[in-house]
Amino acid sequence: MFAWKTEFAVNIPAIDRDHKNLVKILSQIGLLDAAQPDFFPQLLEQAKRLIAYTVWHFEREEAFMGRYGYTGLRDHKAMHEAFNRGCLQLFREMMAMENDPNQHQAARILLGETVSDWLKAHILVEDRAFADFYHGKTPVPTHPPASQPSASAAMPDLPLGLPRIC
Ligand SMILES: [Fe+2]
Ligand SMILES: [Fe+2]
């Protein structure tokens, strides 16, 4: 699935921690035992948890970008929103597999690969672009940035409720 590598680090502690947590949830999904009778309900529960955390991370990341006057925020936000819309379709596809146990493993692969592939590409290109801006490799904002949120800023305890998009 998605193993954390140092190349994914954007060197902004709060954001890196969120991304590591996303990788962790994806790993937990990969470890679910498909032989268990409650595999599919567990898979759905973890999928909801993954998406809820992702949405929460997006909001936090966007707020952070806004505080630093990131010029690419509008486009970045649109990418997050497109992913959220894609999750609705992903859930529909997974639910269509519910009644066929032979499709349950495929549902896990669909979820894992779809979210992993998107996150990897997004972190490496788009979140990295913000990190370059933040770290001063591109022009800094004209107003002084607010202090950086700490890596231990409040984060929702899991399990979370249903994501708002679902
Ligand atoms: Fe992002
Ligand atoms: Fe991110």
TrEMBL record:
<keyword id="KW-0813">Transport</keyword>
<dbReference type="InterPro" id="IPR050669">
    <property type="entry name" value="Hemerythrin"/>
</dbReference>
<dbReference type="InterPro" id="IPR012312">
    <property type="entry name" value="Hemerythrin-like"/>
</dbReference>
<feature type="region of interest" description="Disordered">
    <location>
        <begin position="140"/>
        <end position="160"/>
    </location>
</feature>
<keyword id="KW-0479">Metal-binding</keyword>
<keyword id="KW-0408">Iron</keyword>
<dbReference type="Pfam" id="PF01814">
    <property type="entry name" value="Hemerythrin"/>
</dbReference>
<feature type="domain" description="Hemerythrin-like">
    <location>
        <begin position="12"/>
        <end position="131"/>
    </location>
</feature>
<protein>
    <submittedName>
        <fullName>Hemerythrin-like metal-binding protein</fullName>
    </submittedName>
</protein>
<keyword id="KW-0561">Oxygen transport</keyword>
<dbReference type="GO" id="GO:0046872">
    <property type="term" value="F:metal ion binding"/>
</dbReference>
<dbReference type="InterPro" id="IPR035938">
    <property type="entry name" value="Hemerythrin-like_sf"/>
</dbReference>
<dbReference type="InterPro" id="IPR016131">
    <property type="entry name" value="Haemerythrin_Fe_BS"/>
</dbReference>
<dbReference type="InterPro" id="IPR012827">
    <property type="entry name" value="Hemerythrin_metal-bd"/>
</dbReference>
<comment type="similarity">
    <text>Belongs to the hemerythrin family.</text>
</comment>
<dbReference type="GO" id="GO:0005344">
    <property type="term" value="F:oxygen carrier activity"/>
</dbReference>
